Amino acid sequence: MKNLALLLVSVAVAAGLFLAAGRLVPEPPPLPRFTSRAPVPLSVKPTPKPGPLSAPDWKTAVPDSAAFNVVAPASRKDALPLMVDVKGHRVLFSGEFACNEGRLEYLLTSLGGKTYESLVLAHANPRDLNVCLIAAGAVLPDGYDSRRFRGRDEGKDVDPVWPRLKVELIYREPAGGWRSPRPWKKLKTVRTRAERLIFHQFLDRPMKDQLWAYTGSYFYVDSETGAQIWLASATKCLGAIFYDASCFIQNTDEYWHDDDAYVALPTLVPPVGTGVLVLVTVVGAGEDSK
To answer: Residue 34 — very low, low, confident or very high, per pLDDT cuts 50/70/90?
Structure first.
């Protein structure tokens, strides 16, 4: 009985202390109440993403445009047909910028080629463009084709047997630059050497002004059918920055066999899809590059 009494007393004392402790501990502050609010609008307008522009009117953008005659249709119904100025040794066709960021291996490709590594997608059939260049005066000696081409190597210049081509690009851009506020109220027409839009990532400068080489493509024989196939028509590659024997236009500088040298930069090249006129002039071997 005595032990039971002590147990009851202990329980009573513990209960009293517990109740007393509860009174001494302050109540916690109430939890905060959250209410949903409308998002705060941005105070700064985002810069609009640059958009492509159509190519300029060739009749006003190209010097002495009346001298051109249509030779072949374009590869697209809404594009400029291939035209030749025989006396002026010029070829004109339309295209669009295909890549403005990343490595460049090609100056020109046609639809179905490696556009993701090409500066310009040409609205031209490879064989038709080759015929136009020949009509403008780009003629090779017998036995020569792109397989024999060698660019500038070890201090040696390119063999003068290869006809030289001056490649110019004509396009429109906003007068204040591509990142100027839209709608663009004023546009300007730009005519520039193609090399100035091709950037050497190791030398930190654009490609030097040069004349490209006309090399022709070549035929190969299909082992299964025995048919002769013109390689440029198969690959759809027209002009090479990094040497490609299927192309009939080749880079002539000392980096012609370096596939990592040249890149496209959005600070130099207009947005992808921007229309462009491509003006190729056959200037002959050994002539000045300007």
So the answer is: low
